Automatic annotation (TrEMBL), chains A, B:
Source species of the chain: Jannaschia faecimaris
Pfam family, one: TP_methylase
Pathway: Cofactor biosynthesis; adenosylcobalamin biosynthesis
Keywords: Cobalamin biosynthesis, Methyltransferase, S-adenosyl-L-methionine, Transferase
Tetrapyrrole methylase domain residues: 4-206
Highest taxon, organism lineage: Bacteria
PANTHER family the UniProt entry points to: COBALT-PRECORRIN-2 C(20)-METHYLTRANSFERASE
Family: Belongs to the precorrin methyltransferase family.
Lineage: Bacteria, Pseudomonadati, Pseudomonadota, Alphaproteobacteria, Rhodobacterales
Signal peptide per UniProt: none
A biological process term (GO) from this entry: cobalamin biosynthetic process
Entry protein name: Precorrin-2/cobalt-factor-2 C20-methyltransferase
InterPro entries: 4pyrrol_Mease, 4pyrrol_Methylase_sf, 4pyrrole_Mease_sub1, 4pyrrole_Mease_sub2, CobI/CbiL, CobI/CbiL/CobIJ_dom, Uropor_MeTrfase_CS
Length: 231, 231
């Protein structure tokens, strides 16, 4: 009988924000898998590092950062094949995922390749959205407010309508788009809070007006128009 | 010195989805606080029940379910006053919150009343959004896709524009609005997946077409137009 493929959300970065279920799966894992970007350290692995058994076999998928999708696809193809081999042999495989596996997560690329052949279980995790709200002390949504999550790389025209329509805006993947996003928000009469590396030791929380133009990829802007939770 | 007021996210319902930090705070609590609705059991307390020390003092806020806001406000006023009294005496207070404290959470009403006078720390939790995606095996968002969270009680005209504009739609608080929402989605050529009580023993996952018209309040519809995570 084949093993189970676990997609395990690890939360935003602080190992204390790993769920009890995720922690137990990692502590008991014989095979773990995780992505790393362009030869760098794996952020997912670093979150879970203290929990990984020394005896566990590690399947590392190094994903190149290119505009073309084919090289990344090839990395996931190779990783999925290695994972499939272990599953066929009856081993469970625990895939480490930053945040939540199904929320802008690379786990989805493995899920798409393996779901038809194997039992897959996803353990949801704390996302950077609510982690950023917590560290910024900003309530996100109350009552019947609408919240939209927007990737910062989208063009202005796509962003603008959403900025107008929702009560709460979560702009992800800010990075080098920060100056453009700040201008776009200001043009709509909006300001926000900038958060970088939420829940990590190097965390930064600033009014958007004071945020650095060279923001890292893992940064976010939160805008709340409503969320008056007094009443 | 006053104590700290902790808003602790407990996740969607399965106690295993409590984070390690939340579990430790509850296990060591001397005073816990939580809401209950209209004289019923507290869902938040039930999630954390196994972790609550027998010796802990419990501040229960019974919130009436009325259309008028004043009775609920009064309940939070009374609860905030009890919590403030304990904080002034130097005790920490751990407030139990379903899901995440700042995501449609009643914790916000206490936060608004206490934040200017006391140290408050929010521990983010797994939201029902990613929990529902996990149990339904539905990737939510990949790459630069846009996700909007919509409360089901909103009028059709407010919902329709968002249904058209986002790639992924999360309709919360479905309850008695289910039939109307299903029609509204169908009119836009959309269908979705219905999830009820995600991660609890009584969990239900169905195509929206098969969902019961008398859905409970804690139910959700997920719609993904994009999220093709193969590439």
């Amino acid at each position: 009988m084949s093993g189970t493929f676990y997609g395990v959300g690890l939360g935003p970065g602080d190992p204390d924000l790993i769920t009890r279920r995720a922690a137990r799966l990692i502590e008991n894992a014989t095979i773990i898998a995780y992505p790393s970007l362009a030869g760098g350290d794996s952020f997912a692995r670093s979150i879970a590092a203290d929990l990984i058994p020394a005896t566990a076999r590690e399947i590392r998928m190094d994903v190149p950062m290119t505009r073309q999708r084919a090289p990344a696809q090839a990395a996931y193809d190779v990783g999925a094949a290695q994972i499939a081999e272990a599953l066929v042999q009856g081993h469970d495989v625990v895939c480490l995922c930053e945040g939540d596996p199904f929320f802008y997560g690379s786990f989805m690329y493995l899920f798409a390749r393996l779901k038809s052949r194997f039992r897959v279980e996803v353990v949801p995790g704390v996302t950077s959205v609510t982690a950023c709200a917590a560290v910024a002390a900003m309530p996100l949504t109350a009552r019947n407010e609408v919240m939209t999550v927007l990737p910062g790389p989208l063009p202005d025209v796509a962003l603008r309508d959403h900025l107008r329509a929702a009560d709460t805006l979560v702009v992800m993947k800010v990075g080098r788009h920060l100056a453009r996003l700040r201008t776009l928000l200001a043009d709509e009469g909006l300001t926000g809070t900038y958060i970088e590396r939420a829940t990590l030791g190097s965390e930064v929380v600033l009014p958007l007006s004071e945020a650095p133009d060279d923001a890292p990829y893992f940064s976010m802007i939160l805008v709340t128009k409503g969320a008056d939770p007094w009443l």
